[in-house]
Amino acid sequence: MTYSRIDRINELIKETLAEIIQEEAEISPGVFLTVVKVDTSRDLRYARVFVSVFPERKFQKTIDLLRKKIYSIQGTLNKKLHMKPLPRIEFVADKTEVEADKIEKLLKEIK
């Protein structure tokens, strides 16, 4: 399977951001944050970073923390990536797990 340039960039940003968040963000103990996917625009100016947080009730607090530290995270990302232009990141909720859980519960109710 061949990957396009944008796919390789998305994977690079995903891995790099996961490391940066682990080092810089002060995530509460017992909260698991996962960088699920990165979707970079074709012109490489913007990158949407989809994150998942467990437990779900801690999501808003965690995403607020990430948004508060976005300038620090963006600065570190810019230093680690050797490319131009450098994409501007935006954190977005990944609700795939929550939706899958809802569907699974509905299917169990039907049985």
Structural account:
It contains four helices and three strands; from the N terminus they run αββααβα. By secondary structure, the protein is an alpha+beta fold. It has one domain: GMP Synthetase, Chain A, domain 3 (2-Layer Sandwich). Helix 1 (about 5-25) crosses helix 3.
Which SSEs are present, and which pair or pack?
Blueprint: H1 5-24, E1 32-40, E2 46-54, H2 59-68, H3 70-80, E3 88-93, H4 96-110
Parallel strand pairs: 2-3
Antiparallel strand pairs: 1-2
Helix pairs in contact: 1-3
Short précis:
The chain has 111 residues and is an alpha+beta fold. The chain contains four helices and three strands. It has one domain (5-110): 2-Layer Sandwich (GMP Synthetase, Chain A, domain 3).
Tell me the number of helical segments per DSSP (H or I, 4 or more residues long): 4
Q: How many strands in all? A: 3
The CATH homologous superfamily is termed K homology (KH) domain
Count of domains: 1
Report strand order across the widest sheet: 1-2-3
CATH class: Alpha Beta
Rg: 16 Å
**General shape:** globular
The residue fraction in helices comes out at: 40-55%
Low-confidence stretches: none
Tell me the β content.
15-25%
The helix/strand class is alpha+beta
CATH topology: GMP Synthetase, Chain A, domain 3
